[in-house]
Design goal:
about 220 residues, mainly alpha, Lysozyme, 8 helices, about 0% strand
Length: about 220
């Protein structure tokens, strides 16, 4: 009888010990999850703060260079530049520099070659990119839509960057056309870097004046 009692007590002890062990493991896991949640929350707060600062800097630049439109419209353009930049991995200072270089922030700009809008896209190029981005193409007026134009221009530049793997060459191809740049490269000729240097100069200006003010 005593032997049965001892066996029963051992079973109870092992069972309780096992439960306690699982409980401790469960509590430890909960702590891990809690720590991970806190880290994610902290990262989200940090990212939101950085995004807010970046958007403010874009807006400050637009308030100086793009004053022809109401404040609410400028806010929409600023948000578009930020979103498109993040989608394509492009610095907002670079996008601002391209818009300044291409059209001086005139959404209705038209070049002698027929390039249109903020980022001066040819209708043929814009039509092709609108299909890739699933933007409804309504003819040339699509390129006069500031949001569509910025989105398509950034997407086109990203494609050129992926193709040439060099920002200066990609910028030159954006301006002169990729076919012309490839022709120069195959012949071993030096293509003009005037446009790329101008964009780079404007990019440095925007970075220095608007994106380096706060640490």
């Amino acid at each position: 009888m005593a032997r049965y009692i001892i066996s029963f007590l051992l079973i109870v002890t092992i069972t309780l010990g096992s439960d306690t062990g699982f409980g401790a493991s469960s509590r430890y896991t909960d702590n891990e999850y809690s720590d991970c949640a806190l880290i994610r929350e902290w990262q989200a707060i940090k990212e939101n703060k950085e995004a807010g600062r970046e958007l403010k800097n874009i807006m400050t630049a637009l308030n100086e260079y793009y004053t022809r439109k109401p404040l609410e419209f400028r806010k929409e353009v600023a948000q578009c530049i930020q979103e498109v930049g993040r989608e394509n991995g492009l610095d907002p200072a670079l996008l601002l520099a391209m818009i300044l270089t291409e059209s001086s922030f005139r959404e209705n700009a038209r070049s002698k070659n027929g390039a249109l809008g903020f980022m001066q896209l040819l209708p043929s190029t814009g039509h092709a990119i609108s299909r890739e981005l699933r933007i409804e193409w309504k003819g040339r007026k699509t390129l006069y839509d500031a949001g569509h134009n910025i989105r398509m221009g950034a997407h086109y530049l990203k494609k050129l960057l992926n193709r040439f793997n060099d920002l200066d060459i990609a910028l030159t191809a954006y301006n002169a056309g990729p076919s012309r740049v490839l022709k120069y490269m195959r012949r071993g000729k030096t293509y003009s870097q005037t446009y790329a240097k101008k964009v780079s100069r404007h990019c440095k200006m925007f970075t220095t004046n608007y994106f380096c003010a706060e640490s």
